Amino acid sequence: MSADPIDDPALAPLLRALRAPAAERELDGLDGAVRSFRAAQVTSPPPSSRRASMIFTLAGAKLGATLAALAVGVGGVATVAYVSASAPASTPDVHSSGSASPTSVGASAAARVRTSTGAPSVTATAVGPVATGAAAHGLCTAWSHVADRGKAAQAPAFRNLTAAAGGSDKVDAWCAALPAVGGSGSATGGPAGHPTGKPTSVPTGKPATVPTGKPSVVPPTVPSHQPTTTPTGKPATVPPTTHPTGRP
Amino acid sequence: MIGEDFDRVLSRARTGDEAAFARLWRDLNPTLLRYLSLAGESADEVAAETWLTVVKGLSAFRGDETAWRAWVFTTARRRAVDAGRQRTRAARAPWRDRSGSWVTSVEPDCADLVIDSLSSAEAVRIVRRLPALQAEVVLLRVVVGLSVSEVAELVGRSPGAVRVAAHRGLQNLAKIMSEQGVTLSDSGALREVT
């Protein structure tokens, strides 16, 4: 390269003009700018807190996904052990949720199964028939459009969803982990962030063992336990003791 | 540039101090207008939209003065690209200008420019004789004072491409200016003769 062209003396007048102090005209817009600044002050706190909460939501989602992936690892082993140890007839519950979505292969399906079964297996079974499979997409879509999740989580339909996810604060992550059949999963929280991360580690565990169970077997075992997993807890309905924390 | 005071001014503006915000605005708006004038029109509107976005995001912004400038000009460029799209849509030529380029170049004009007392508007008009990328990069590097990597991120090109564009842009401008100078002194000489 030759000498820096910026040192060319021919440029000096041009650069001087480009960097010249403000002309009167260029400061005309100050009043309008200050007005919009003032207006932004009024509405400012909500945006910033929303941003903060979004960050937490994203962090929560990431954490949830991580837990799900961990649960897959551990749960996969546990399930295999469980399956081989016990008679299939007596323990249909473990597989029920898994077999509900045998068509939708893939890591996230496995992860989803695990999040529900990885927890206390009894609780998770209660949810299987409702919140897995095709219904999950609808539920997730609906969930993503609900403003007040605290209240919504107590609606019967969402109770199953939150139970499957392991808590209303984990629904976004859970939904994000759904296979994108209808593309509904992306409608939730941070679209770009979620799907990328975890699933790679997942697929090792499951698919082979899954199809044994029949979804039809499930319901009998279900009603014994309440699927209410809302963190806010409805003391009236159910004590939150069965809360699937995702700890296997 | 605000310099040393910047951090204090910014934090005061962030908490709603109008005087502090006015200082930030006065410092940057002229440069912003000159940059946005590369599109040839509607610089004032786009600048106002830019500030509208900036004040909304101000409470969340963190960074030093260079980061601040990079942020404001990144915002400005987005608004300018939007405005450019609207223009082409209005011109019923939606298939054109897919690159996201918003700078409109101009042909050399024959206006007599007194080079030693160029206005900033005339200077921007000279810059607009460059190819769009060169014009934009020259202004962001030389006038706004952003680093190569900041400009690269802002315009969506590689740092290498930005370096080359800045270098060629300045070379071209030097050529334009020296030719302009010759023309002017010639015509001045002619005027003296007649």
From TrEMBL, chain A:
Biased composition range(s): Polar residues: 223-232
Biased composition (Pro residues): 237-248
Region: Disordered, residue numbers: 185-248
Protein name from the UniProt record: Uncharacterized protein
Organism taxonomic ancestry: Bacteria, Bacillati, Actinomycetota, Actinomycetes, Micrococcales
From TrEMBL, chain B:
Gene3D superfamilies found in the cross-reference section: 1.10.1740.10, Winged helix-like DNA-binding domain superfamily/Winged helix DNA-binding domain
Entry keyword Cell membrane: no
UniProt name for this protein: RNA polymerase sigma-70 factor (ECF subfamily)
Keyword Cytoplasm in annotation: no
Listed Pfam families: Sigma70_r2, Sigma70_r4_2
Protein's GO biological process: DNA-templated transcription initiation
InterPro entries, A to Z: RNA_pol_sigma-70-like, RNA_pol_sigma-70_dom, RNA_pol_sigma70_r2, RNA_pol_sigma70_r4_t2, RNA_pol_sigma_r2, RNA_pol_sigma_r3/r4-like, WH-like_DNA-bd_sf
RNA polymerase sigma factor 70 region 4 type domain segment(s): 124-173
Family stated for the protein in its record: Belongs to the sigma-70 factor family. ECF subfamily.
Domain RNA polymerase sigma-70 region as annotated: residue spans: 33-89
Gene Ontology molecular function terms on file: DNA binding; sigma factor activity
Assigned keywords, A-Z: Sigma factor, Transcription, Transcription regulation
